[in-house]
Amino acid sequence: MSVECWLTIHRCRIHSRHSKCAGRLGRRVCCEQASTASAFDSGEHQPLEDGPDDVFVKDNAGMLDIAVHPDFATNAWIYYCFVAGSSDLNTMVIERARLAGVRLVERERIFAALPWFHNSIVYGCRIVFRDSHLFVSTGDRWDLRHLAQSPGSHPGKIMRLREDGTAPDDNPYAQLPGAAAEVWAIGTQNPQGLAVHPVSGDLWEHEHGPLGGDEINIIRAGRNYGWPVVTFGKEYSGATIGEGLTFKEGMEQPVRSYVPSIAPSDMLFYTGSAFPGWRGNLFLGALAKTHLARLVIEGETVIAEEQLLAENGRRVRLVEQGPDGFIYIGVDDGRILRLVPTNPAH
């Protein structure tokens, strides 16, 4: 495997997702934390016009994720998640807009997490499509961790929305008095990766823990993933969180946990042909451990894990499969790198 620099963006802390749009081969969309979205054609960088003007940028806040609608070739919808507001009050929101050349038109704000809050950390803000619905992760905002166990608020949850941002009637808490109808699952800490398994259709998630305790989970309707009651991590001071439980009846155990933390970022099930031996493998970026993690999955179990690119010391923030079947990674120095097999037979 070799690594090529496919694109350089002159901003640090890039978080980007390449588009998966049919009929637009070679074109991608990307978002950068400190700005709005951009389009790329064969490596040419074109900032998109008429984006949101209330992006709050500080610490973890900014433009955080972007995705194209599965039927983008016919409807031109793109969806993006960012933090809106100011240092006084802010929250993560989702907008959608149609992409017309390099302009965002028909912009709609379709979701805003409640409550608004005054810090600038732990937003989650990952989006993925499955079965004509939009799944969204929300972080617990750290100071609002107690709300992660309550279906009546948005922090520390996985949401399921219709494509227009409304809540489906068959969501697990939709008929519960006082609950937020958008909630699909509760008890997450800071989900930074969402991906749909290409065979089972299950929704996989990974999340940052506190000091240790990063997790990989399979997200199912109405399930409780434990935070902050159950965790394999500790406070950054080293103190125990809550009662120090790692198991409690009625709360899900992770598929995998990491102690010490790797600080996972982004998530990809590989389905391409460029690396046939990696089909079905799960890839995670690692910020703290500065590598690309390749996990071999059997059913719902991780049976092997390999650290790729660890010698490069790069904080991997993006992991995406391009329409050419190659794997693209975005790193914190502003580059998007392409992984290419040195021996295509393997």
Please provide a written account of the structure.
The chain is mainly beta and 346 residues long. The chain has 1 helix and 24 strands. The chain has one helix spanning 72-75; strands spanning 2-8, 14-15, 27-32, 37-41, 44-47, 63-68, 77-85, 90-100, 103-112, 124-130, 133-138, 157-162, 183-186, 190-196, 203-208, 214-219, 256-258, 264-269, 282-286, 291-298, 301-308, 316-321, 327-331, 335-340. The strands form 6 sheets. The chain has a 4-stranded antiparallel beta sheet with strand order 1-24-23-22, with no helix packed on it. It has a 4-stranded antiparallel beta sheet with strand order 2-3-4-5, with no helix packed on it. The chain starts with a strand and ends in a 6-residue tail after the last strand.
Question: Approximately what portion of the residues adopt beta-strand conformation?
Answer: 35-45%
Say which CATH homologous superfamily is assigned: TolB, C-terminal domain
The averaged pLDDT comes out at: 89
- Note the main sheet: 4 strands, antiparallel
Structural class by SSE content: mainly beta
* Strand arrangement across the biggest beta sheet: 1-24-23-22
| CATH fold label | Neuraminidase
Number of domains: 1
Summarize the amount of helix as a percent range. under 10%
Q: Provide the succession of SSEs.
A: EEEEEEHEEEEEEEEEEEEEEEEEE
> Unreliable segments (pLDDT under 50, ≥5 consecutive)?
8-26
Task: Quickly count the helices.
Answer: 1
**CATH architecture tag:** 6 Propeller
Shape: globular
CATH top level is Mainly Beta
Distance between the termini: 10 Å
Radius of gyration: 19 Å
Strand tally is 24
